[in-house]
Design brief:
468 residues; rod-shaped; alpha+beta
Length: 468
């Protein structure tokens, strides 16, 4: 019995100890899992957050609200991620503002009438705007990364700009200058066919340029074409000269002529035949030269007193037909042909001044054809439905304009005629400006040979908006 009892007690102890061991192991594992989860959860959360941040995901991260260090670390990491997200948003907004400002600046540069060129200190072109291409007639965008002085026709301009920057740099600190300004005369340009305009003859350009040094030491060059302003100033100066001529010279001319004729009348019968011939020749010379001076003064007076145009609807074709009848005589130096566009609407113009324009152009064309074997003058009108403007064209088969005259064709007293005053095209230019008409003059070339000249005026129609 005692042996049997010991075996049962032994089995009970073994079972009890086994159960206790199992419970102890289970409790230890459970405790380890609980403690491990408490320790590993923040670390896993941090590891996942770090991976997201490394991938660029800065969205709000979860954080534990406990009091131990690891849970505090998750809260700090979430705050840091939020700060990074806010910084990125601020940076994105700044970049958007930069891109917007850059786009606005580029739009402004693209629409500036002035030309803008940014260069390195050694003259290498960094960037340009369309205004520079339009003024210099060179596709400057294709020359970016190359030296400005390498462009054909701009060598002298580039050298003078370089000298101006050199002088400015040496005097900037001493005189506290922030820019330099200078005018330039371009006598020839390397015109590219891609940027040619209808005014193919304009080879003389007056530029007003301003230069400054940017913070990165690049050179900024801004320039504008002031050729028309200079031409207008010259025309105004010639108008003042004309008024003075009319006042100071014309009055003494009549007494001079009358005195010469009176001397001839009084002395003609008192001199012998050789002296009479000399006297008559001298008097005729005086009278002829006085008449020539009177005509000159009268033309200058008319140029100075040209009234302001009164723009009303005018039938340009009818004006041409009325005036051209005066040039159909067989005694003209050249036949006058005309081709008028019947679809041309009325234009805004002053009929009297337009008659003067047509007369001056026809007379110049006929004078250019004088003495040629096959002279011809053509007058035509053409209506463009796209621009809604009517173009008047007068061309001849003469010798064309010399290059020196072509550059200054619209300035007073610029002429190739021995007895001309050079006011014909100057008056045409003045009337064209009053009518807001575009005026072009060029030589007509066939196989590189000049075969005449052409003058065109483009007028605004009655119903069309003013497009300049």
């Amino acid at each position: 019995e005692r042996a049997l009892g010991r075996e049962g007690l032994r089995s009970m102890y073994i079972g009890t100890l086994t159960l206790s061991l199992f419970l102890a192991v289970f409790g230890a594992v459970l405790l380890a899992v609980l403690l491990g989860n408490q320790l590993a959860r923040p670390l896993l959360m941090l590891a996942a957050g770090v991976r997201d941040v490394a991938a660029g995901d800065l969205s709000p991260k979860p954080a534990l609200q406990g009091r131990d260090e690891l849970e505090g670390l998750t809260r700090s990491f979430a705050d840091m991620t939020q700060q990074l997200s806010d910084t990125r948003e601020a940076l994105d907004r700044s970049m958007m503002q930069v891109h917007t400002s850059r786009a606005n600046l580029q739009t402004i540069l693209d629409n500036l009438t002035a030309g803008v060129i940014v260069m390195h200190a050694d003259g290498v072109i960094q960037s340009t705007n369309p205004g520079a291409t339009r003024i210099l007639r060179v596709p400057l965008a294709a020359w970016e990364g190359r030296v400005l002085g390498e462009i054909e026709g701009l060598e002298e301009f580039a050298e003078r700009v370089r000298d101006e920057f050199k002088s400015f740099t040496s005097e900037q600190a001493q005189h506290e200058l922030d820019h330099w300004q200078q005018s330039f005369e371009l006598h020839s340009t390397a015109m590219s066919p891609a940027v040619q305009t209808t005014d193919d003859t304009r080879q003389h350009i007056t530029l007003l340029a301003r230069g400054a040094v940017l913070p990165n030491q690049s050179h900024l060059l801004v320039f504008d074409d002031i050729s028309e302003i200079v031409s207008a100033q010259r025309a105004q100066a010639w108008g003042e000269v004309a008024r003075r001529l009319a006042h100071e010279i014309k009055n003494p001319l009549t007494p001079i002529q009358l005195s010469a004729e009176r001397l001839a009348l009084k002395l003609e019968h008192k001199l012998n035949e050789p002296d009479q011939a000399l006297l008559g020749k001298s008097v005729r010379t005086i009278v002829d030269q006085v008449d020539a001076m009177k005509r000159l003064v009268n033309e200058f007076r008319d140029y100075a007193r040209l009234p302001q145009a009164e723009l009303v609807p005018v039938d340009l074709n009818a004006l041409i037909q009325d005036l051209i009848q005066l040039y159909l005589s067989e005694h003209q130096t050249a036949p006058v042909h005309w081709q008028l566009d019947p679809s041309a609407p009325r234009i805004l113009g002053d009929a009297q001044q337009l008659r003067q324009v047509i007369h001056n152009l026809l007379q110049n064309a006929l004078d250019a054809c004088e003495g040629l074997p096959e002279p011809e003058v053509h007058v035509s009108t053409h209506y463009s439905t796209i621009s809604q403007r009517v173009r008047l064209t007068v061309r001849d088969s003469g010798t064309g304009f010399p290059e020196t005259i072509l550059k200054r064709a619209f300035e007073p007293y610029v002429t190739t005629k021995p007895k001309g005053t050079g006011l014909g095209l100057a008056v045409v230019k003045k009337i064209a400006d009053e009518h807001r008409a575009r005026l072009d003059v060029k030589n007509l070339e066939v196989n590189g040979q000049v075969q005449g000249a052409q003058v065109s005026l483009s007028f605004q129609t009655v119903a069309s908006p003013d497009k300049g």
